[in-house]
Amino acid sequence: xxxxxxxxxxxxxGIDAYIIPHGDAHASEYMAEHWLAREWxxxxxxxxxxxxxxxxxxxxxxDGRYFIQAARELNDQIxxxxxxxxxxxxxxxxxxxELPTGGKLGFDGRTITAAEFAKIKEALEDKNLTFAYKxxxxxxxxxxxxxxxxxxAFEHPIQFAGKTVxxxxxxxxxxxxxxxxxxxxxxxxDSVAWLFNFxxxxxxxxxxxxxxxxxxxxxxxxxxxxxxxxxxxxxxxDYDALPKFLQDFKTEKLFYNPNTTNVLLAEAIPKGMxxxxxxxxxxxxxxxxxxxxxxxxxxxxxxxxxKDGIVMVKMLYWLYAAMRDNPPVTEGDIVRTLKNLRxxxxxxxxxxxxxxxxxxxxxxxxxxxxxxxxxxLRAEGFxxxxxxxxxxxxxxxxxxxxxxxxxxxxxxxxxxxxLKGNIALSRAIFLKGTTGSAxxxxxxxxxxxxxxxxxxxxxxxxxYCLGVHEGPHNITQLYNPVPLAEGMIIxxxxxxxxxxxxxxxxxxxxxxxxxxxxxxxxxxxxxxxxARLEASSSGDSDSGNCDNPENPKNPDGTFLSFETLTYCxxxxxxxxxxxxxxxxxxxxxxxxxxxxxxxSPHLTPEESEWLKEATQPI
Amino acid sequence: xxxxxxxxxxxxxGIDAYIIPHGDAHASEYMAEHWLAREWxxxxxxxxxxxxxxxxxxxxxxDGRYFIQAARELNDQIxxxxxxxxxxxxxxxxxxxELPTGGKLGFDGRTITAAEFAKIKEALEDKNLTFAYKxxxxxxxxxxxxxxxxxxAFEHPIQFAGKTVxxxxxxxxxxxxxxxxxxxxxxxxDSVAWLFNFxxxxxxxxxxxxxxxxxxxxxxxxxxxxxxxxxxxxxxxDYDALPKFLQDFKTEKLFYNPNTTNVLLAEAIPKGMxxxxxxxxxxxxxxxxxxxxxxxxxxxxxxxxxKDGIVMVKMLYWLYAAMRDNPPVTEGDIVRTLKNLRxxxxxxxxxxxxxxxxxxxxxxxxxxxxxxxxxxLRAEGFxxxxxxxxxxxxxxxxxxxxxxxxxxxxxxxxxxxxLKGNIALSRAIFLKGTTGSAxxxxxxxxxxxxxxxxxxxxxxxxxYCLGVHEGPHNITQLYNPVPLAEGMIIxxxxxxxxxxxxxxxxxxxxxxxxxxxxxxxxxxxxxxxxARLEASSSGDSDSGNCDNPENPKNPDGTFLSFETLTYCxxxxxxxxxxxxxxxxxxxxxxxxxxxxxxxSPHLTPEESEWLKEATQPI
Lengths: 618, 618
What we know:
The structure is a homodimer. Chain A is α+β, with helices and mostly antiparallel strands. Helix content of chain A is 34%, strand content 17%. In chain A, a hairpin with a 3-residue loop joins β24 (495-498) and β25.
């Protein structure tokens, strides 16, 4: 029905194929309901996937994470194209096949990035197409479309923000000068919010407001509806005023990031001003600045992780007691318990993503969502919890895999292999300039040695009361040229999934810090490991060692390491201790001792007693 | 004087700046003396560096490896520009500063690659320059220039080549078809020699002849002087005939690799045929085909490494005995001894590079060359030997660091850290598709944990009776997108240099093979390690293990590992055994036992006795 209506509109406008992607006007991971056009037309609700409609065909392209969900949800006029499967066309190849030469391809240019559009044009360059990129056809058909959000935004106070807007603008302008950029268009919502020290409520899990910004050496324009907030450090315009503003705007070299700037905006920039190639997308100024957390931000983030550690331990104790005294417990019960515990913590804003609360085989499914109830837990097997909060002083993300009773030797071994990878990455010492891609193997090595692997990245960056997934850095098998720099924070989350049986993931957040000298070998004593943890968390480090990797005069270079920010016990019942080296055991014991010391003052006597047991040395 | 003469010629031709690079017409690492124009004009003999001359300035640009040598050798009319040092202009930036707008830049287009020329044009695009790329001005001045080599080439017999030229051409044409390439220009000397199963004597250390090839789906043209060889599978043309041939040649899509194709040739290709962008340089067809050694090639290479292992052990025993009975021994004596020992081995062709025979602090210098005599060895400290041979059945490259007597605890520790890195890389198990860049950290980790590093790659590919450094794969900190594939061979050579004191490097050659299942943990028994070495060297592998990483039905993917080809003892006197884990000790002991078993049948009783001692378990 909706597809048929769309085809009527397409025909009226002479459009041969129409693309409906999943996306808002800012390439956001999370977005307001207003933007869920692909969901409306297709019924499919997954976070990745794109619909293409022609006069006689309609397809959804999505990846392996969503094949089952898409098959279940998809409106029956739309065919599922399983991206990445053999002999399945890409949507560009489909378009090349279906579109007539000289045909017209339509889409809502706000929902496709300039970078994606460039790829489409390249793939279809022989077709001599016309691009109707201002056609929001779904918007015309969608009668009860939710309006754009109008929630109030609020200042992110200086105690949290650390730097004033003026200071941040000075940093941005210094970079612009260095790169000879005369104007800088910010299109990513987190970049605008971070630079102007505000947060918002327009999007679930992502505390921002819909806004753009345009920075010159003398002016700072923000395009955000004035009902939401008044920004004292900016010239304020309506959110919708940007395309027109750009058409009249004069500058020499305007930089914008084609990965987050939509086609409508990119096309509104006079070609002579376009300096989008002056920086590579991963060198974009504000993403790079905000990825390196300031000392104030880092101190606050550490505090946020202590708060979230308290939440996690209270939940784990509650789960332990409920399984003992008051079953049944469902996956949904645990989500609610966590949410209520987080609300008690100071500066809590919202959750940072939909908690994954997954028992048994559910944990082997990517993006499992238990809903209100979900599966009832039993006193056996693994339970996986992946959860995080947005606090004014930080964004958290923690995963633990809990042993609920009997588990097999294979499960213990698999858990221990994942733990070994997590420990190896957290203990890494690496030359300044090293990328996350170069470190990735440290987390996978114990699994690879057993012929096992996980098909996702090892680590993602995190925002600061912003996106829970925030680049430009990460730790993956795919190459990413961004080096890990002191002050960046990133997740450390090796995993293992056995389809139909269980899923294991252990996720801590780690911060890049100057390397602390430490002994490497099997004679390493727990007290020494401990001294190192103490030293790195207090900002000091052992300097008596002539081989100190952070010796500034080291002719071999400057070395970096990680400091673990997450405090939450790792289930000792799931570990096969004989598979751990002495160094790994000592590391785990030191981590647990530190976890107990930091969290126990904030717990009830029962919780504290439970944590003492859960963090005993092995 | 030479510079002044060059300036007269430049003025006569209206050339404002003239570039004299280090290179032949094929971007070869080693080249005939005919091509040493930069050496002739500047006096500098290093293997990297480029001269630029203007009407009133002349500079040599070279990197840190050569600063001292360049300062010593450089003709005093030429200024040294230390590439990479702060505030030192690149030669392109120098040209941008010195050249007038609309000026003329000259060079011998045979000695600059199309890729380098593209960079020059991009850097100077605002200058509106004319490029005089057919001007061999140095050639006009250089009266006693050595002529192009005329040495005979010879067939590489099928017992070594493994595949006929017809079979190799069929493989090449299949790839061409897949990529819709109608003609393929081969400019790298090793590619031409490999494809047409011949070897030559035009260049020291690099057994090839000067030649080009042009392959279509029906024809195979080789441009090589007919006095050198007759190639039965090719239409043969004079070496110099290619530019003219290209001008008259008609095809649809001609692929050439801009990294090895010189400007003169690239400019001779009609623009409409230019399909150099159809493949990325690292995807070039013949380099990819020849990087993956065939079963015949691999079996031969294994044999070549046994021969070279015999040579190394005979040399080590000779050195041991000479130091004991018949000193003094010089660095040069060892080079001569090695050369004489290699000559006794079947199928020996020549050395694969200038042996580095470096005592004490000499080993901390990159590219040290002892000359005829060099330093006299004393019964203390480290001696480093890096040496290899060209055999018809393989190209070898081995480095060992020998303890000659007393060494400090620091030296033992440093040696052991390097060894740990070497062992870790050789034991790697990795997912198919993994690049060398992703594995590099395994070799550096033990050093990085002590704040140490080596400023070169960990591994380079090797040719087959061809270049000792041969891509497209490698193992370095810099990203290289080429995955390590089964059948590739590569060096494993972590190192450590203490300037003014000593240098340590341990280099084995390893081959990528299907992963063999093996236990990971500290309970791993020597017999098990041994079983694995046996299994992998015989092509079998343990298949009784359900976690076998090479299980073809493994849902987590296919796993690869390395097989070590080099057999040569690692000096036990240089090791601090307490720094090795049990796994590392077992690995070393198994490697040594295998080395003894394989080499001792080919040694004298005295040599064999010495090797027994040198390979005893620790």
